[in-house]
């Protein structure tokens, strides 16, 4: 399953990889399932905290039918039209200013700065929706996830046992700091700082 890459905003990651990022839609069900199938068992455990071989139809429906206000999701698509990463938040039921956040990147795309870019873009959308902080739960041994959260300004609020919980304030100053950190990770293709040979959509 592939997607129309021209429907998203183009970015170049720190290793020169090209992606398009856009909000997730219901018609992305097959794309999401394909991306999940390409995750290693370790990555699936890191995201869902259990052994999970596949997503049910109900789970796929929940993950793709988002209202873009209380539940937002941004997906990244590679040059060949395959899903390579998703970041989402779900607003808290008891605290409308808080939302739980999760970022998942297909294994062969990890370490390129994609997770950080997705989180930065999602943070802007969350703040526009009135959310002032993210909460995140990660496995205690998931070094990459913890590093991403800390660089985004996350503070650990609990951490006894296999899972650690963080809180990430979504303040403008913090968001600017995250943006500065991401300059080493990627550039937007139509940015003045972009490589002249990389401007526009891939052919």
TrEMBL record:
Pfam families: Acetyltransf_3. The lineage of its organism: Bacteria, Bacillati, Actinomycetota, Actinomycetes, Streptosporangiales. InterPro entries: Acyl_CoA_acyltransferase, GNAT_dom. One of its GO terms (molecular function) is acyltransferase activity, transferring groups other than amino-acyl groups. Keywords: Transferase. This is GNAT family N-acetyltransferase. It comes from the Bacteria. The keyword Transferase applies. PROSITE patterns: GNAT (PS51186). Residues 19-175 form the N-acetyltransferase domain.
